[in-house]
Amino acid sequence: MKSRWDDLEALLAVVDAGGFTAAAERLSTSTARLSRAVSRLEKRLETTLVHRTTRRLDITEEGEAFIAQARQALGTLETAEEALTVRRREPAGRLRVDAATPFLLHQIVPHLAEFHAAYPKVRLELTTHETNIDLIEQRTDVAIRIGRLEDSTLHARPLGHSRRRLVASPAYLERYGTPRHVEDLAHHVLLGFTHLTQLNRWPIGDGRTIQPTLASSSGEALLQMAEADVGIACLADFLTRGACQAGRLTVVLDDATHERHEPIQAVYYRNTALHGRINAFLDFFADRLTL
């Protein structure tokens, strides 16, 4: 395909220069090479485009029509190449990002206005799933995943680590008392997950799996339940930090909680066309995450 465009450019150079010799001098190539390029075009088109003489170059009627369309085609190609170059410099187009609801709400949404101001031509589409998804099946460009990765076909960019802690509201603790030992949890309302049962293995004591008194499939729902004085939840710092700083939640059994840090990574398939958008998104948010 490239040689076909090269042959077109050779023909236009010959026509613009008024002959093969002048065109060869302008392009720092040989007249023989230009002649072969034009001959290939004529053979492919099964028509004569130019009549070659020692003194002048005569363009046939078919050549005139073809050259006019060739100029238009090359102009369109150059415009497309220039637009793509600019697009790579200035990210533009759709970018579909998936993350668990709590991560999206507490780490991405607060910075969306700033991101849009910085990259107004990037059209973000945000989706939420509480479990890992198939990026191709869900037409997703980037997914934020928490925990160890299993799919080695994906490119992964580390974003940080997450630590889980036990939290409850001051009002709940005033009503039911603050647990001082792990064994005290047996007398409390424990909030856990319905589907992500591995998250019901709390990082305390021997890493026991709790039996939730109340459960939800959503970490965000558990956060709201804890803030509403319902019980004790074990949630990631990136989810509870704001509530703890505002005094709506209090960390309990901190000394008995193991420091287990789960990796947080952005995963995606390598795609040259999306490279600029993905990098812009990840570079921007990597500096703003509070994990």
Estimate what percentage of residues fall within beta strands: 15-25%
CATH class category of the largest domain = Alpha Beta
Q: Note the gap between the termini.
A: 50 Å
Q: Domains counted in the coordinates: how many?
A: 3
| Annotation field: number of helices | 10
Keywords: DNA-binding, Transcription, Transcription regulation
GO molecular function, one term: sequence-specific DNA binding
Domain HTH lysR-type: 1-60
Family: Belongs to the LysR transcriptional regulatory family.
What does this structure look like?
By secondary structure, the protein is α/β, with parallel strands linked by helices. The protein folds into three domains: 2-89, Arc Repressor Mutant, subunit A; 93-160 and 266-286, D-Maltodextrin-Binding Protein, domain 2, CATH 3.40.190.10; 162-262, D-Maltodextrin-Binding Protein, domain 2. It contains ten helices and eleven strands. It has helices spanning 2-17, 20-27, 31-45, 61-89, 101-108, 112-118, 170-176, 219-227, 237-245, 275-286, and strands at residues 50-52, 57-59, 93-99, 122-128, 142-146, 155-168, 190-193, 214-216, 232-236, 250-252, 261-268. Strands 3, 4, 5, 6, 7, 8, 9, 10 and 11 form a nine-stranded mixed β-sheet that branches. Helix 1 packs across helix 4 (61-89) and helix 2 (20-27) crosses helix 3. The longest helix is centred in the first third of the chain and has 29 residues, at 61-89. The two termini are 50 Å apart.
